[in-house]
Design brief:
heterodimer; A: alpha+beta; Tetrahydropterin Synthase, Chain A; four-stranded antiparallel beta sheet; 8 helices; about 50% helix; about 20% strand; B: alpha+beta; three-stranded antiparallel beta sheet; 14 helices; rod-shaped
Chain lengths: ~290, ~350
């Protein structure tokens, strides 16, 4: 053998290379993130690293495996949680309002064999699931009124979607982990514009009501102040109404004839008095 | 490197262990192929390390023997053993490099043996089997990553519970709490976080009013979104810990911004009404208090001597009043002036009117 190698290095190198490929190919390494279907002449014979719920990472499954070279073919299938996205699509609610809904689902291939038989590749599976997701989301959401569409989680609508999706997906060896609405948008154009209009008018209305409220409060404050002032006056002047009358009259004369009111000097006045006037009563020179 | 190189490498590989057992001077004689592999020790070494670990010892031993005993023998002997040593060194370095792993603080090394998860290395220096058997993936578990959603420049509208639209931008801070799950459970973790965040935010926003989303409930919304995201991600067994959600912007859409400004203006206006009223009220009550106090003071004195005070106040007031104005004293009912003042003529019209 050594002699053969020495004599025909190229031939022996080729042989060694082929042998190496065969050896390496016979012991595929199965990573944690993948499961695999071993196909022998087109017929699936074994599944490697199949997903088992609840099995901890690092338990049996992944690692070194084997196959018969050239006979067994390995089809790799993702073991992780995968995503399927739904394009935004219009949904008509029971009250005839349109909403653009954008959803996504997370799924896991739990039966790689079934998945391989039905879809062969992950891409195929993805587009099939997309179709199912679209129709299920539309079917379930169309049973809801508009208000419920805004938060479908609260009404458990998403659980219904998930359940019916799971029934469909099980045919592909897929388990739906989660379905969620990513976005709910008003369609562009009239619905969006009318929503804007509604918001705008609501704001103007709010602004008016804030102003009115402010006005009302201001009036109340003023009235309270007036009342307070009246109370103060009454408490003080009520002690002797007669004197108050006199006192106030004196003030009034002063401000009318002497000081003026509001910063204006009094208009010039001429008073014609009779000698019988109380002020002039001493004019008569009466004696005691 | 082409196929030729690989072939030559392989050739050398298979030949390696037996090489020394043959007649010593083979490689130089076989110039066409033999020199090729020796010219590429790293390639050779790697392959040695990978597959023919068993042959290594033998090789080593023979190499030593040759080195020790062959000094005076063949002239090419030293060359050959040098090459041998180089190979051994490269293999050794390779083994050391792939067996010892420095894990910095905040990192974890996830070890897989032939693809199967075997253990996780903590910070420090960890040892594993060499490369093709064990592989180590380093994962940063302490570093907080941030994912931004929505942008402050463009509009990202979201429907609120009261069917209004909200322009929102927020970011999610997260880190990896479980590196094994993070690596093995979720395809496209970044995209998943984005979608989950969007979904959770939408779900929470759709349960609050626009006013709440823009104002006082922000912190509450952030907490709810964080919580919801964490639950969803745990449901995926993603190994991701959501540290927090921060709303950077929650504004009305630009189309209706003016109307919202109108509200702010109205609030200011209402406040100014109230301020004015308050200042009026203050002034009014103070004035009342002042006048009342003045009256009280005078009244106190008045009570002591009512008649005198009254007359005094009367005369004082009349004095002030009459001293400033024109006076005509008339004997009633006739119109005979006692004191015909020059002003009487002047002020005749007023006089007429007064009568």
């Amino acid at each position: 053998m050594i002699g053969f190698i020495r004599n025909r290095p190229i031939v022996s190198a080729v042989i060694a290379f082929i042998a190496l490929i065969i050896v390496l190919g016979s012991f595929p390494i199965v990573p944690e993130t993948k499961q695999a279907v071993v196909v022998r002449f087109g017929k699936p014979v074994r599944i490697l690293n199949r997903y088992e719920p609840g099995r901890p990472i690092g338990a049996a499954g992944a690692g070194l495996s084997y196959r018969i070279p050239f006979v067994d073919q390995i089809v790799w299938i993702d073991k992780r949680v995968l995503a399927v996205d739904m394009e935004s699509q219009p949904v008509l609610s029971t009250d005839q309002r349109r909403l653009m809904v954008d959803a996504f689902a997370r799924y896991r291939i739990v039966d790689p064999l079934l998945m391989y038989i039905r879809s062969t590749t992950t891409e195929n599976l993805n587009s099939q699931l997309q179709t199912i997701l679209r129709s299920e989301v539309r079917n379930e959401l169309a049973k809801q009124p508009f208000a419920a569409l805004l938060s479908p989680e609260r009404q458990g609508v998403m659980n219904d979607v998930k359940n019916s999706l799971n029934v469909q997906a099980a045919k592909f060896g897929v388990q739906i982990v989660d379905v969620r609405i990513k976005k709910t948008d008003l369609p562009d154009g009239t619905p969006l514009q009318s929503a804007f209009d509604r918001m705008r008018t609501a704001r103007y209305q709010e602004a008016q009501s804030i102003r009115a409220q402010g006005n009302k409060q201001a009036q109340i404050i003023q009235a309270e102040a007036d009342a307070e002032a009246a109370r103060t006056y009454a408490a003080s002047f009520g002690k002797d109404p007669d004197f108050y009358d006199f006192y106030r009259a004196m003030q009034s004369y002063k401000s009318t004839f002497v000081q003026g009111t509001g910063g204006k000097p009094p208009a010039s006045t001429t008073i014609i008095l009779s000698p019988q006037n109380d002020y002039l009563k001493e004019f008569t020179g009466r004696t005691k | 490197m082409g196929w030729g190189g690989r072939l030559r490498g392989l050739f050398a590989d298979t030949k390696g262990p037996w090489g020394p057992s043959g007649s010593g001077d083979e490689p130089p004689a076989d110039d066409g192929h033999g020199s090729g592999p020796w010219g590429e020790p790293p390639e050779h070494g790697r392959r040695m390390g990978t597959r023919s670990g068993g042959g290594l010892d033998e090789l080593l031993r023979r190499g030593r023997m040759r080195f020790g005993g062959g000094g005076g023998g063949l002239p090419r002997g030293p060359d050959r053993s040098l090459i041998l040593w180089a190979i051994i060194a490269v293999v050794g370095i390779f083994l050391v490099v792939t067996s010892f792993h420095v894990i910095s603080p905040g990192e974890r090394g996830v070890v897989t043996r032939f693809g199967r998860y075997s253990s996780t290395l903590g910070p420090g220096v960890g040892t594993t089997l060499p490369s093709p058997i064990d592989r180590v993936q380093k994962v940063d578990v302490e570093g907080i990553r941030s994912t931004d959603l929505g942008s402050q420049s463009s509009e990202d509208l979201m429907l609120t519970g009261d069917q209004n639209l909200l322009d929102i931008a927020y970011s999610v801070r997260w880190n990896i709490k479980n590196p094994e799950l993070y690596l093995f459970q979720l395809s496209e973790p970044d995209e998943t976080i984005k979608q989950v965040a969007e979904s959770a935010m939408r779900a929470v926003i759709s349960q609050v009013t626009l006013q709440e989303a823009m104002g006082d409930k922000r912190a509450d919304i952030e907490a709810q979104v964080t919580d919801r995201m964490q639950r969803i991600l745990d449901g995926y067994r993603s190994g991701i810990a959501v540290q927090g959600v921060a709303i950077q912007q929650a504004d009305p859409p630009a189309e209706v911004n003016d109307a919202f400004k109108e509200v702010t203006a109205a609030q200011q206006e209402a406040q100014s009404y109230i301020n004015n009223a308050n200042s009026y009220a203050l002034q009014r009550t103070r004035q009342a208090q002042g006048e009342a106090a003045a009256f009280d003071k005078v009244y106190e004195q008045y009570k002591l001597a009512p008649d005198v005070t009254r007359r005094r106040m009367y005369y004082e007031t009349m004095e002030q009043v009459l001293s400033k104005i024109d006076k005509t004293i008339v004997e009633a009912p006739g119109v005979t002036p006692y004191l015909p003042l020059p002003q009487v003529q002047k002020s005749q019209p007023q006089q007429d009117r007064q009568q």
